[in-house]
Amino acid sequence: MDARAWDERYAASELVWSATPNQFVASELAGLSPGRAADLAAGEGRNALWLAEQGWEVTAVDFSLAGLDKGRALQERHERGRDLHVDWVHGDVLDFESGPVPYDLVVLAYLQLAEDERRTAVRRAFGALRVGGTFFLVAHDTTNLTEGTGGPTDASVLYTAEEVLGDLDGERFEVERAERVRRVVPDTDPAHQHTGEGARTAYDALVRVVRTG
What is the largest CA-CA distance in the chain? Predict the structure, then answer.
């Protein structure tokens, strides 16, 4: 989907995604000391706002103006909105550059791209980190198409943790976690495709590495 299609999707409902952070973003990153973070393909800003709540100074990047507008609106309605540090940036993650000051954390959550574009996004995200910074990615796993629920039905935009590590070939990093993970999706979830059948399991690829050079 291009930026116009995402604008239309975001404009069609109050929130496409929940206002709460992705469960893996919250569980994996809660223990990090806050600093500068970039949330790439931030969408409606749920992860960016959660990071800001934890004390991070966040750059939230997305190519959908409608998504960014929703993120700003969520921040304005937040009880601590004025104290949350989020810079909402309109831009394409495939062209993302960190500028002169590197980041302590870069997040890519459910950015489903074909192989060449995925590799570009992953390497640009990793390249924005300082030495010692954390790269975190979670996405719909390749096996979700046949074994899980929800997510894209186009196999070309699904991938595994091992493929993401391959995208970083030649870079220096320490792997903290790289594996397929399970996510329980209740039948009340707006993106759930099996309403009435109870909770189902989705499968995600999760990668967390620390840049060492």
Answer: 51
